[in-house]
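Aim 2 progress update. The chain analyzed this quarter is reproduced below.
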Amino acid sequence: MKFLPSRVFVNLGVVDFFFLAMAFVLVPGIMAMDDNIRRRGQEVVKEGIFLVTLVPWQSFWIKCLEMVLCGRLGRLVLSTFSGRRFAMWVQAILEVYFMALWFILYLEARQKDSELGGRRFGREELERCIDKI
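Predicted structure tokens:
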């Protein structure tokens, strides 16, 4: 990988790097739904990694599908069979789809976190999160 220095890649490991990448996907959701807007970035990233570890297989498969369908391979396959403009249009729709899917996964991870803490993640908590947005 050219964009990462080799020492960082070796220290993190492939699996840790993958979970870190998925955590950064959940960080905007955490920032939008957070009660405390004064938290530091490090705390938000730690919470993102924690939430990804609550739903590891779902986040793994969603990230794999997103990389294949919205990446260069998806664009190449779609443009080969249907044209470049149609491929860009379909990829834009897929990006929005995956954004919504990540948001649903974020809510599922929050619900599991609440269950582990002995709390309930119900309608009131969801309404409070929506009111903050």
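The chain has one domain: 6-132. The chain has seven helices and no strands. These observations will guide the mutagenesis experiments scheduled for the next reporting period.
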